[in-house]
Amino acid sequence: MSRVRTRELSFDLRAGETLLEGLERTGHAVEYQCRSGYCGACRSSLLAGRVEYAQAPLAYLAEGEILPCCCRPTEPVSLDIPLLEIRKQA
Questions:
Q1: Integer Cα distance of 12 and 2 in angstroms
Q2: How far is CA 41 from CA 10, 57, 78, 87, 88, in A?
Q3: pTM of the shown model
Q4: Residue 89: pLDDT above 60?
């Protein structure tokens, strides 16, 4: 399990969970289309830490960008991702 820190929350990924699955479970605003690394819709900024991919993603990634749909952190990470507005108001 890896520790994930976002703009407003910190949580642990569950065993076998992708970064996208953990972000969805904790109420974060992440767009996605494919869950397999080829569209790039979930492209997010990695502020600190490292991730790995089972297969190299096909979507273009600039320095400091990751695809949460198909990566897993190899150490604690910090991401520039907000919570959903609904969750913030609750």
A1: 6
A2: 23, 12, 19, 22, 23
A3: 0.83
A4: no
